[in-house]
Amino acid sequence: MLKVYLSGEIHTDWREQITTGAEGLDVEFFSPVTDHDASDDCGVAILGDEPNKYWHDHKGAMINAIRTRKGIADADVVVVRFGEKYRQWNAAFDAGYAAALGKSLIVLQQPDHDHALKEVDAAALAVAREPSQVVEILRYVLTGTLPS
Amino acid sequence: MLKVYLSGEIHTDWREQITTGAEGLDVEFFSPVTDHDASDDCGVAILGDEPNKYWHDHKGAMINAIRTRKGIADADVVVVRFGEKYRQWNAAFDAGYAAALGKSLIVLQQPDHDHALKEVDAAALAVAREPSQVVEILRYVLTGTLPS
Amino acid sequence: MLKVYLSGEIHTDWREQITTGAEGLDVEFFSPVTDHDASDDCGVAILGDEPNKYWHDHKGAMINAIRTRKGIADADVVVVRFGEKYRQWNAAFDAGYAAALGKSLIVLQQPDHDHALKEVDAAALAVAREPSQVVEILRYVLTGTLPS
Amino acid sequence: MLKVYLSGEIHTDWREQITTGAEGLDVEFFSPVTDHDASDDCGVAILGDEPNKYWHDHKGAMINAIRTRKGIADADVVVVRFGEKYRQWNAAFDAGYAAALGKSLIVLQQPDHDHALKEVDAAALAVAREPSQVVEILRYVLTGTLPS
Amino acid sequence: MLKVYLSGEIHTDWREQITTGAEGLDVEFFSPVTDHDASDDCGVAILGDEPNKYWHDHKGAMINAIRTRKGIADADVVVVRFGEKYRQWNAAFDAGYAAALGKSLIVLQQPDHDHALKEVDAAALAVAREPSQVVEILRYVLTGTLPS
Amino acid sequence: MLKVYLSGEIHTDWREQITTGAEGLDVEFFSPVTDHDASDDCGVAILGDEPNKYWHDHKGAMINAIRTRKGIADADVVVVRFGEKYRQWNAAFDAGYAAALGKSLIVLQQPDHDHALKEVDAAALAVAREPSQVVEILRYVLTGTLPS
Amino acid sequence: MLKVYLSGEIHTDWREQITTGAEGLDVEFFSPVTDHDASDDCGVAILGDEPNKYWHDHKGAMINAIRTRKGIADADVVVVRFGEKYRQWNAAFDAGYAAALGKSLIVLQQPDHDHALKEVDAAALAVAREPSQVVEILRYVLTGTLPS
Amino acid sequence: MLKVYLSGEIHTDWREQITTGAEGLDVEFFSPVTDHDASDDCGVAILGDEPNKYWHDHKGAMINAIRTRKGIADADVVVVRFGEKYRQWNAAFDAGYAAALGKSLIVLQQPDHDHALKEVDAAALAVAREPSQVVEILRYVLTGTLPS
Predict the structure, then answer these.
(1) Which residues from E are below 8 Å from A136, CB to CB?
(2) CB D135 within 8 A of CB D21
(3) What is the rounded CA–CA span in Å between residue C64 and residue C73?
(4) How many domains does chain B have?
C-alpha cells in the first residue's frame, strides 16, 4: 500500500481528479484542510481571538502544521501542486520539507513555471503536467502497468 | 561559533548588510551562488549544452543543490529572505528543508507578505523585517547583549 | 488515525474530558499510569523493597519510564497538562522529550503560568486553556471541522 | 575535549563554581543567557513591541531557543540545576530534550526535591548535590582521577 | 512477519522460485517492475517523449526509483541477485543502498563472480548460490527449522 | 500492544515462564532460535560445509543475526537473561545493541552476577531476579496493575 | 571546506587529474586503497592465510570496508568513476551507499554506459564525462566561478 | 584522522602495545578508565557512600558510562579486547553498542573463545589475535601499507 500526501493549490479540483482516477489502486491519500476559511481561522476559532492579524494567522498556521507534518511524515510519496495563481510558498515549503525527509516527490505544474521551479523540480522524481499523469505514475509504481 | 546559511533573494544587498553588521561576532556565513547568470547556466557551462530549456535548467539546479544542501546541513541557523519580487519558491523550499532538519529558522520579509508566508513563519523562531534585526539576533544569541 | 499521548497532571479529570469529548474521532489515546500510589510504589512492589527512599523512588520511576517512552515515541501528538498545584517537572520533562523527537506538542495550562511556561509554550503548536479546546483541535486536524 | 551545557537556575553562582573548579580540564562550557531581564525582553527589544504579554514572552522564548537548542545539540554532557525557588519548568524541559537526544545528563539538586524530580533523575547518569561534585565528575571522566 | 525485497536480475525465474518455495511462510515479497520494456519506457510513456536517449532513460529511472526506494525502505531483508549476464550496476547500487540503511542483506550469485563481488558480499549476512537456499534461510529465520 | 524480545540464556524454561505468565496481556514476544544445534549449524546446513570451524560458526552466526536484528529493531522492550553458566557474550552484545537503539532494557539475572553485570545493569530500566517479576513489570506497564 | 570521496576505477589516473586540477581549492580528498594487490591481500597479509579463496577475499574486503565506510560517511560529495573495463560492482555499491546516506553524488562515466547506469545516474546530482568536469563542478560549488 | 576506542580487558598491557605500535600514524585513541579501583568506586567517592553494594556499583557504572558513551559515539573504529579471564560482559556490551551505531568493529581475542564469541565476531570487520595485528590494520587503513 502506498501513502500519498497531496500538497499545494486548493482552488481547483486536482485532488478529486487524482483520487477518482486512482480508484481501485492500493493507495491511501492525505491532504491538508482545503476549506480556505477554516484553514485561515482555525487558530482563533478554537483558541480565542487575536486583535493582531499576524498572530491570528500564526495560531492557525500552527494548528494546520499538526496535520501537515503528520501527513508528510507518514507518506511514501508527496505530490506538490503549483497552480496558476498566488505565491504558494507553503507548497514549496512542503516540497522542501518532504525532500529533506527523503520522501519521493512528484511536482505537478505547468511549463510556464519551469524556470521558477527548477530548484524544486531538481529534488523531484517526476514533474507532471496533468493530474492524470500522477495517476498513471501511481498505477505504474503499484502495478507495473503503463497507460495503453 | 555559529554557522549561518543565508538563503533566498539575490537582487538586493541584504547579505552584505548582515555580514558587515556581524563583523566581530563568532559567526561563519554560507550562501548560495548569488551570480544570477552563473547560477542559471552552471549546468550546461560545465557538463555540456542542452537544446531543451527544461534540462538546461535542471542540470544547473542539480549542481547548485550540491552547494545548497551542504550549506543547510552544516548550518546552526538558516536565514531565509523573501524579497518584494519574483515567486522565490526556492527560498520557501530551503525553509522547508531546513525546518525538517531541525535547524533554527529566521525569516526575513516585509509585512505585506505575512499572510502568504504564514505557514513558513510558523516554522520559524524569528520573523525579522530588516537585516539589522537579524544581526541583533545573532549578537544576542552569541553574547547575550541587546541593542542599546 | 491519530495517536495522542496525554502527559502531566493526574489529580483532575482532564483526560476523561478529552477522551469523552473525542468519541467518534479516529484517535487512539495513551497515558501514564494515573494511579498515584501505584506509580510511586511500582518499583519496590515488583522488584523488592529499598530502605532508602531515593532508590525506592528511582526503581519506580524507571519502570514508569518504560510506559512513558513508548507512549511518547508512538504518538503523533503529545498533550501536556500543567495543573494548578505541584511542581510537575515530569510534565515539563515529557514536553522537552517530545519536542526533541519532533512530535506535535499541545500545552494545556492556565494563563497565570504563561510566564513560567514560556519556553515550553515556545516549542508547542498550540496552547490551550480548556480540555474542550484540545478536543476541538483534534477534531479540526482530523476532519477539518471547526466548532460551530 | 568535553562539551558541557549548563542549564537551569540563574539566581546563584553555581555556573561560576563549576567553570572555576574545572579550570585546567579539557572542557568547553555553554550556557543560556543568564541576564534575566535580557532573556525576558530580547524578543521585543529586537523585533518590536507586543502589547500582549503572552506574545511578548513568546517572541523572547523563541529567540532564546536558538541558543539553547544549539547548546544542547552540541553538548556531550548536559548539567541541569534545579534551585530552591521558582517552578523551573524550562530546566525540566531541557532535561527531557537532552535525554531524548541521548546526551549524558547530570542533575544538580537538593534532597528535598528528590521525590518531585524522580522521573528526571531516572534519566540521569548522576544526581549531584553540590557544584563541586559536578566538577569531580568531569575531572574523573576526563582524567580518571578521583577526589583525594 | 518478514518483509523481503527481491532486487536484481530480471531475465530468469529466480523470484518465482523463491516466492513459490516460501509459500506458507509469513513473508511478504516486494520487487521492482520486472517487465523490461515497461521499466525502460515508463518515463516517456507517462510524462512525454524525450528526443535525447539519456533523458528518456533518466525519466524512467526516476519513476522506477519511487518503487525501489519504498521497497527497500520497508524491507527487513533485501535479496540481491546477480545473474550471469549484463553489468547489473543497479543490483549493486541497491545492495549498497540497503547496506547503508542497515537492512539484512542476502546476495544470490554464482562462484565465478565471487572475486568481483567481494565488497558486496562483505556487507551481506549470507551469500547463496541457489534460490532454494534463500528459501531455506527465510524458513529458518522465521521458524527455526533447518532443511531435512 | 507491547513488542518484547527475549534475549539470552537458552538452557532453562524462563521464556516459557514469561510467555505463560503474560497470557491475556497485549504483548507479542520474539526470541532467537533456541534450538542449540540448529542455531550452531544453520549456516553450513543451508549454505554448505566449511572445513574450518571458525567459518562454520561464522556462517551460522550471520544467519542468526537476520532474526536477532529484526527482533531487537521491532521491540519496545528487550529482556536479556543471564543464566548461571557459560559466558553468554551474545546476551551482553544484544543488551548493548538494544541500549544503543534506545530500547527499554530489562535484565534478568541473579545477585551473584551483580558486580560483573554492573555496566549492563546501568543501561537497564529494571533488573529482575525472577521471570515472574518480568511478567509483573509487563502487566504494570500495560494495565497499571500491581501484584496483589 | 568540502570533503570529497573518490570511489571506483583504480586503473587510470583519474584521481590524480582531479586532485591536481583542484589544487588551490578548499577541498580534502579521500580514496580507497588503490594498490590493487594490497587491496586484494590485506586480509590474509595481516590476519593470516586462508586456504579458501572466498574467505581470502572476504577478510580483505572487510578490512577495506573500514576505510571505505569512513571515507563515505565523512564526505560531502562522493564521486564514483566507472571505467571501461571490469564489472565494478563495488563502485555501484558505493554509489548506493552514498545515496542512502544523502551524500551529493557525482558519477563519472562514458556515454556508452548511460543505459546500464541509468538507475545510478538517477541518484546523482551530476553525470560527468571527464575528470576536468568534476574539477569544474568543485570549483563552481566552492567559488561560484564557471570555466572561462 | 582516525578515532579509535579501545574497549575491554584492563589487566594486560594490550592498549600500550597498540598505542606504542601506532606511533606516527594519524590516530587518536580513547579508552575507559583502566584503574580498576577508581572505576569501581568513582560513584561513591564523588557522590557519597551507599550501604548497599548494588547501588555502590550502580552509581559508579553510571558515571563510567559518561566516558564510555562519548568514546564510542566519537569513534570511527572500536576495538574490543576479550582477555583470558573474567566474564567481560561490559566488553560484549560495548561491542553491541558500537555495532548498533554502525561503527567499524575489530575484535581482539584468542581462538579458544571463537565459539563463544561467534555472534560478536559476526558483527566485526576483523578478528585479530594479537595487538600488533590491530596496529597493522590501522596502518593499512590509513596508509595502504601492508606489513613487510
Answers:
(1) 46
(2) yes
(3) 14
(4) 1
Domain that holds residue D20: 2-32+73-143
Contact state of E45 with A146 under an 8 Å Cβ cutoff: yes
- Rounded CA gap, D46 and D34, in Å? 18
Query: Is A77 a domain residue?
Result: yes
Are residues C122 and D62 in contact, defined by beta-carbon separation less than 8 angstroms? Answer: yes
More confident residue, E87 or A51: A51
Examine the pLDDT at F86 and tell me if it is beyond 80: no
The per-residue pLDDT for B10 is: 92
Are F42 and E146 a contacting pair at CB < 8 A? Answer: yes
If we measure between CA atoms, which residue out of E123, E125, E130, E127 comes closest to residue E147? E130
D77 and D68 in contact (C-beta within 8 Å)? no
Contact G36/H at CB under 8 A: no
F50 touches chain E (CB under 8 A): no
Inter-residue contact D97 to C97 (CB < 8 Å):
yes
Minimal Cβ distance to D147: which of H34, H46, H70: H46
pLDDT of C148 > 90? The answer is no
Residue G27 lies in a domain: yes
Edge-to-edge strands, sheet with G126-128: G27-30, G2-8, G77-81, G104-108, G126-128
pLDDT tens figures, B86-130: 789 999 999 999 999 999 999 999 999 999 999 999 999 999 999
- State whether residue C145 sits within 8 Å of chain A by CB: yes
Q: d(Cα A94, Cα A96) in Å, to the nearest integer?
A: 5
Question: Are the Cβ atoms of C121 and D89 closer than 8 angstroms?
Answer: no
From chain E, the residues in CB contact with B59 under 8 A are none
Mean pLDDT, chain G, as a whole number?
97
B40-83 pLDDT, tens digit each:
999 999 999 999 999 999 999 999 999 999 999 999 999 999 99
pLDDT the model gives residue F123: 98
Whether C89 and D120 lie within 8 Å, measured CB to CB = yes
Residue D44 lies in a domain: no
Cα D126 to the chain's mean position, in Å? 14
| CB-based contact C99:C7 (threshold 8 Å) | no
Residue G21 belongs to a domain with what CATH number? 3.40.50.2300
The answer to pTM > 0.80 is: yes
Residue E87 has pLDDT above 90, yes or no: no
Q: Is residue B11 part of a domain?
A: yes
The answer, for C52 touching chain H at a CB cutoff of 8 Å, is yes
What's the distance, Cα to Cα, between the start and end of chain E in Å? 23
